Amino acid sequence: MRLLFLLLLMGLAIFFQVTLLNFFPVFGVKPDLVLMIVVFNSFLKGSREGALTGLLGGIFIDLATGSYIGMNALALMIVGYLVGFTESKIYKDSAIIIVFLVWMASFLDQLITYILLYFMNVQISPGVALLRVMLPTATYTAALVPFFYHRFYSSNQDGFLRGKNI
Amino acid sequence: MLALMNYTESGRVRVSPMESVLRDILAPVQGLTMSLGHRLRGLVSFPFTLYNAAEENQLMKKKVDDLEKTVRQNNEISSENERLKKLLDFKTTVAPAVGFEVAGAAVIGRDPGNWFGIITINKGTSQGLRPNMTVINEQGLVGRITSVSGNTSEVLLITDPRSGVSALIQETRAPGMVEGVASFPGQVRMVHIPVETETSKEQVVVTSGFGSMYPKGIPIGWVQDSGREPSGLFNSAMIVPFVDFNRIEEVLVVTGSAAAQAGPDIARLPHPWGEGILNAGEETGLVVQ
Question: Is residue B182 a contact partner of residue B228, using CB atoms and an 8 Å limit?
Fold first, then answer.
């Protein structure tokens, strides 16, 4: 059941990324809501579940993009796995910490994607990638964390997302 | 008594002295009492008025909400009408003039990430669309179709880093290749411009059609900045596209070409199409007969 809700949540996030969020770009980019969900879940449930939700969320994005299937899955799986290491080490009630964590995770996700794109022969100058994609995306995504984290956290404690790890 | 009744019958002009004195004495008191009565009535009816006002306020608020909603809907419809009118104008004036057969489509989605410039439109093979068809709007070149399903198509925007459009600078006829800069919607880059040609700000860039799947003469954008490529062998230029990729909601797919018709005076075609065709001359193949 918990997995089903997570999948629904990520499906909804992709739907918004494909449609509505395009009307609210900041510095030409839109936020990465799927990454946000993956980071929240990894932070609360650990590496194993983080890697799994990252993989599933990434596959969703890859299917929506329609090209380089597996690229986002790989990037988000690595990010989910790494963020999971913070599970038992950081105080979970603080939105500030999670803002910083999402920023770092988003930047890492974009960096991995950039490297994978390079190997796929899609060459983008590092300056453009850093200033026009990586930094704005990480900042925009992190800025939205306070609006969503506490809802996700309380749902994880006693809402739809409560229950055993997947 | 009868005499008194007769004396005071209606229609008499003068009042008796006694009546006059009585009226004059009572007039201020009457006035004061009436004024007091008005105030008292206001005081007594105040709670009822308040109740009515609250009810009226609710009604008015609802009316204002309804009206605001209607205004928003009207604004949306008006904006859509304006966009569709521009596309229709283009379809009926510019497209026949340059010999394009076009089909309209609405944008229904975009790439979920920030690296690529891809849009999804609501027409596919059922409507006769095929991969590599050119996609334009009334402002200029949008991109090309990369994949199609029954009722949708994916369009690779010219801002995508994987996109390459063979182009030329309209004024100098200098060739080059226009490529995307990440998915950043406000800029593309033109590379491999021969160093012998002078590239200056605000020169218009159009498709060249050389070995390309894009027809000749479609406006792409204007030169914002130029310089020498790191290799030193060519120049490159940053181009601001004519198309506003952030606000693109409807597009036209070039489904075929027909002989250019004798349409309106070419100089009267809207910017940048008119000038593009006018200056591109016979080389573009888009000259009005």
Answer: no
pLDDT at B212: 65
Per-residue model confidence as pLDDT tens digits over B54-67: 888 889 999 999 99
Which residue in A66, A114, A132 is closest to B184 by CB distance?
A: A132
Contact status of A32 with chain B (Cβ, < 8 Å)? yes
pLDDT of the residue at B38: 74
ipTM for the whole complex: 0.87
CB contact under 8 A, A61 and B184: no
> Does the pLDDT at position A140 exceed 60?
yes
- CATH number for the region B83-284 comes to 2.40.10.340
Distance CA A61, CA A15 (A): 10
| A19–B109 CB contact, under 8 Å | yes
Report pLDDT for B286. 41
Q: Assign domain A2-11+28-151 to its CATH architecture.
A: Orthogonal Bundle (1.10)
Residue B216: partners with Cβ closer than 8 Å, 6 or more residues away: B206, B207, B208, B209, B280, B283, B284, B285, B286
Is B186's Cβ below 8 Å from some Cβ in A?
yes
* CA pair distance B157, B178, nearest whole angstrom: 12
| Encoded tokens for A106 | 């988003």
A:B CB pairs within 8 Å = 67
Q: How far apart are CA B212 and CA B30, in angstroms?
A: 99
What is the model's pLDDT at position B287?
35
Q: A88 touching B, CB under 8 A?
A: no
| H-state helical runs in A66-144 | 71-84, 95-119, 126-128, 135-143
Give residue limits of the domains in chain A. 2-11+28-151
What DSSP assignment string belongs to chain B? -HHHHHHT-TT-SPPPHHHHHHHHHHHHHHHHHHHHHHHHHHHHHHHHHHHHHHHHHHHHHHHHHHHHHHHHHHHHHHHHHHHHHHHHHIIIIIHHHHTEEEEEEEEEEE-SSSS--EEEES--GGGT--TT-EEEETTEEEEEEEEE-SS-EEEEETTSTT-EEEEEETTT--EEEEEE-TT-TT-EEEEEEETTS---TT-EEEE--TTSSSPTT-EEEEEEEEEE-TTSSEEEEEEEESS-TTS--EEEEEEEE-PPP--S-GGGSPTTHHHHHHHHGGGGS----
Question: What pLDDT score does B53 carry?
Answer: 83
Of A14, A25, A128, the CB nearest to B246: A25
Report CB contact under 8 Å: B112, A29.
Answer: no
